[in-house]
Design brief:
Elements (H helix, E strand, L loop, with lengths): L1 H11 L1 H13 L1 H6 L7 H27 L7 H29 L3 H17 L12 H9 L1 H14 L4 H31 L1
Helix pairs in contact: 1-4, 1-5, 1-8, 2-5, 2-6, 4-5, 5-6, 5-8, 5-9, 8-9
């Protein structure tokens, strides 16, 4: 169940980049730029609005899992912390897709690239299969993947087995994604808006 939640949230975040790209195509950015509003309002508003969608994308499958017999050993507190962490993960991963949405010109090309990259990110992690069952070279890729650290953290929180090292790796993975992709997204967003 924890892996399913991570998989679902990572897939859900793709809409952030696709939607931003479509905003450019529709002229939404031009309309916002002509108004006396904070310049990053379109990105900030999209990210804030997506938080509701991300919450639904985690709570609905969790409730279904509980109805089907999933019993988290981490208790209510562990599940609540896992859900909160999934919000942070969604915010972090969405920056990757918004960067692609800001750079790529066509929304069809952006969607294709985002889906392709998302598939590679998900399937080179420990969401679907344990990394120990993979060849050595792939284990190195899996251990560097932020989704691997996120999955390990969510599993640890829900099962009550989270270690300090796993928690640090999970939070650090989100911080690195934000630090790398948020400034780049804002830069290319402004740059595209000036064209």
């Amino acid at each position: 169940m924890p892996g399913v939640l991570v998989l679902g949230i990572v897939i859900t975040t793709m809409d952030a980049g696709i939607g931003l790209n479509m905003d450019f195509d529709r002229g939404t950015y031009d309309r916002i730029r002509s108004l006396p509003v904070w310049r990053p309002a379109a990105i900030a508003g999209r990210m804030a609005g997506d938080a509701v969608r991300y919450a639904f994308a985690t709570v609905a499958p969790l409730l279904l899992g509980l109805a089907l017999g999933f019993r988290p050993d981490g208790g209510f507190g562990g599940v609540l912390l896992a859900l909160l962490y999934l919000q942070l993960l969604a915010f972090s991963v969405a920056w990757i897709w918004t960067l692609v949405g800001a750079i790529v010109r066509s929304h069809v090309a952006a969607q294709t690239m985002i889906v392709m990259l998302n598939t590679m990110v998900v399937f080179t992690s420990n969401v679907v299969a344990p990394s120990e069952s993979m060849p050595g070279w792939l284990q190195a890729v899996i251990s560097a993947n932020p989704v691997t650290h996120a999955t390990t953290m969510v599993r640890g929180l829900m099962h009550g087995t989270l270690t300090g090292e796993q928690a640090t790796a999970g939070i650090l993975a989100c911080a690195v994604l934000i630090a790398l992709f948020a400034p780049a997204t804002v830069y290319f967003y402004y740059r595209r808006g000036r064209r």
